[in-house]
Structure formats: structure tokens, C-alpha cells
Write a structure and sequence with these properties.
Blueprint lengths: L1 E2 L6 E9 L3 E4 H5 L6 H8 L3 E4 L6 H16 L8 E5 L10 H9 L5 E5 L5 H14 L5 E9 L9 H4 L4 E10 L6 E9 L7 E2 L22 E2 L1 H23 L8 E4 L4 H11 L10 H4 L6 H11 L8 E8 L3 E8 L1
Parallel strand pairs: 5-6, 5-7, 12-13
Antiparallel strand pairs: 1-9, 2-8, 3-4, 7-8, 9-14, 10-11, 13-14
Helix pairs in contact: 3-4, 7-8
Bound molecules: coenzyme A.
């Protein structure tokens, strides 16, 4: 699914992110499961991840990130007309985490709902809100990727527990004024024939948690890592190429690629295939691990706030996740 032309251009007016204080290092994990800092760093690039406190929910992480994005955008909570939270770890199955965020922010005029597209959720939310703004339905939108993956991690499975972390990232989207940057092209896709590669099998209607299966870890993430790896590289490369082509850009025009932060080897493979030099690819997964829907949003905010790109620069975001799902966006900042 793709789009290029909009009636009204839409820009990113502000970004924000929040990660919990508690750092869980590879060394600490190695004291709990049969792994090592060396194995985790070599295979993934991850050094440490953040873990939310007990009583700190996904909506709390999301709200903290959102406040920073609003502040940078120079907008008040009452100016926001749409809130989309992308998450696979909602506070509650219903109501949506976005409703909790709306209340916490005092964004009483906003329509608020969640979307579930795993690690691709933030860019799915970007495309949906861009379209709703460019169609004239809303002026200002707040999109958030937020996860408390520590609550769905099997802490005794070394093949997955070393990978994930908690955090949130947010962006404020609004109509662009003449001369401002804009979201130039977007792409998203899904392959539902590969749901089994990465899933939380229990806790839904297909496999409710019962007193009989409560200790089987069915409510935690399970993954066929090697298969996921292969699809991640191919799909992200294709999605990024599509938005670059639709934007009419060449690889050498791109100031910064911000990919999903899951595995450094995946990121290196994509940079190689896109012919974008590694120094133009933003990486922060060594600090946070894979925070699913939050990952690209946190990376966007860190890159923005540390001056990795400047107004007018061409940047590409590209993500991949369970579903399987993938998405990309070409943005003139
Ligand atoms: N520490 C030490 N050894 C580990 C380990 C760990 N944390 N996890 C797995 N191993 C072992 C395995 O048991 C296996 O041992 P064996 O050869 O004796 O059977 C060996 O390491 C290799 O495992 P494998 O799964 O083949 O490793 P890999 O090179 O594929 O790396 C991942 C595993 C998960 C890092 C990698 O597959 C990956 O990153 N996949 C994509 C994950 C991803 O991006 N998911 C999110 C998408 S949104």
C-alpha cells in the first residue's frame, strides 16, 4: 500500500522519547540465563536495555514521550485532535492505551485509539495520521510507539530475553506551512502467512490463559529468529527502496536512514543493500535493545535532538515486525 501525493502536506513538528531508569546489562542477564555479553554483542549489537518499574505501565512511558514531543512542537495537549498509540503491550486489553494517554495529557479534544502492528506500528500510525491530516479531517496528531516488553518476555528463554526492552517515542504531526518539510512518501505491507514466525501465542481468544496452562509461558514472545532475520532484511530493503524511488531521491541524497532497532547485523545488511554508508545509518540499539513499536520512534527523537539531521535533510525510516509487517517513510525534515 503506497501513497505519494497529498492534498495538504504534513510535517513532523516535534519528537519526544522516554526510557525507564532501570538499566539491565548483558552481564546481569548472563547471571540469570546461559548467555554472555560476548554472544549478545556479536549476534545482535545490544549491550543493555531499559526495564520499566513495577507499576509503570505502557501509558506512563507513552505520556512522558508525548509531553516532550508536544513541547518541541510548541503545541498544548488541547490542540491535539488525534492520538494513535502503536503497541503490543497495552495497559489493558480495553480500553485502548491511547485513551489512558489522552486522559493523562488532558488532550480532551482528541480522538484516541491503538493500533497493533508490532515493530511496524509507529510508521503505520504515521501513515494513517498523515492521511487523516492531509484529507482535512484533523489539524494536529500525536503518534506514539510505546512498549513494556518486559511484561511479555520469557525471562528463562535465552534466545529471546536478551533481545527486548521497554520505552516510548512520540511525534507530533501537523499541516505543513509553505517552505516547511513534509512526509514525502510512505509504504506499508503485511504477510499474514508468516504469523507463526514471531508471536505471543497465548492470552487471546485462540489460546486463553487458564489455570492448566498458566505456567507454560504462552503469554510471552516466541520467535524463529533465523527466519525472521531473513525476511527482515528483504522486506526492509524493498520498502526503503520504494519510498526512495517515489520521492525521486538517489541513495547519495539521503542524510540519514533510521531503521528498526532489532539487530545490528540486520541494519548493516540493509545499509549495504541500499548503498547507504554506515555512518549515515542511525543506531541506538546497543542502549535499548528491541523496543518494538517504540524503537524507530525513540531513534527518530534521539537523532533529531542530537542534530544528526537538520531542516531540509532527506531522511528514511524503515521498520519490520511480527505479522509479518513492514513499513517505510521518506521525510524531508
Ligand atoms: N546466548 C548464547 N547462546 C545462544 C543465545 C544466547 N542468548 N541464544 C541462542 N543461543 C544459541 C542457540 O541455542 C544456538 O546454539 P546451537 O548452535 O548449539 O543450537 C546458537 O546460539 C545459534 O542460535 P541461532 O538462533 O541460530 O543464532 P542466530 O545467529 O540466528 O542469532 C538471533 C539469533 C535471535 C540474534 C537472530 O536470529 C536474530 O536477530 N533474528 C532476528 C530477530 C529480530 O530481529 N526479531 C525482531 C524482528 S521485529
Amino acid at each position: 500500500m503506497s501513497e505519494t501525493k497529498s492534498v495538504i502536506d504534513v510535517c513532523i513538528a516535534g519528537t519526544g522519547s522516554y526510557v525507564p531508569e532501570r538499566i539491565l546489562s548483558n552481564e546481569e542477564l548472563a547471571a540469570k540465563v546461559d548467555t554472555s555479553d560476548e554472544w549478545i554483542v556479536t549476534r545482535t549489537g545490544i549491550k543493555e536495555r531499559r526495564i520499566a518499574a513495577e507499576g509503570q505501565f505502557t501509558s506512563h512511558l507513552a505520556t512522558n514521550a508525548a509531553r516532550k514531543a508536544l513541547e518541541q512542537a510548541g503545541l498544548a495537549a488541547e490542540d491535539i485532535e488525534l492520538i494513535i498509540v502503536a503497541t503490543i503491550t497495552p495497559d489493558t486489553p480495553t480500553p485502548a492505551t491511547a485513551c489512558h494517554v489522552q486522559k493523562a495529557l488532558g488532550a480532551s479534544k482528541a480522538v484516541a485509539f491503538d493500533i497493533s502492528a508490532a515493530c511496524s506500528g509507529f510508521l503505520y500510525a504515521m501513515k494513517i495520521s498523515k492521511r487523516l491530516i492531509s484529507d482535512g479531517a484533523f489539524k494536529n496528531a500525536l503518534i506514539i510507539g510505546a512498549e513494556k516488553l518486559s511484561s511479555v518476555t520469557n525471562w528463562s528463554d535465552r534466545s529471546t530475553c536478551v533481545l527486548f526492552g521497554d520505552g516510548a517515542g512520540a511525534a507530533v504531526l501537523r499541516r505543513a506551512e509553505p517552505g516547511e518539510g513534509s512526509i514525502v512518501a510512505t509504504e506499508m505491507g503485511t504477510d499474514g502467512s508468516l504469523t507463526h514466525l514471531l508471536e505471543i501465542p497465548g492470552g487471546g481468544t485462540a489460546c486463553p490463559i487458564t489455570s492448566e496452562n498458566v505456567n507454560d509461558n504462552l503469554q510471552t514472545l516466541s520467535m524463529l529468529g533465523k527466519e525472521v532475520f531473513k525476511h527482515a532484511v528483504n522486506r526492509m530493503k524493498e520498502a526503503a527502496e520504494k519510498v526512495i524511488e517515489r520521492a525521486g531521491w538517489q541513495p547519495e541524497d539521503i542524510a540519514c536512514v533510521i531503521p528498526h532497532q532489532a539487530n545490528l547485523r540486520i541494519i548493516d545488511a540493509i545499509a549495504d543493500r541500499l548503498a547507504v554508508p554506515n555512518e549515515r545509518v542511525f543506531v541506538n540499539l546497543h542502549k535499548y535493545g528491541n523496543t518494538s513499536a517504540a524503537a524507530v520512534a525513540i531513534a527518530l527523537d534521539e537523532a533529531n535532538r542530537t542534530g544528526v539531521f537538520k531542516r531540509g535533510d532527506k531522511i528514511v525510516l524503515v521498520v519490520f515486525g511480527a505479522g509479518l509487517t513492514w513499513a517505510a517513510a521518506a521525510i524531508e525534515w
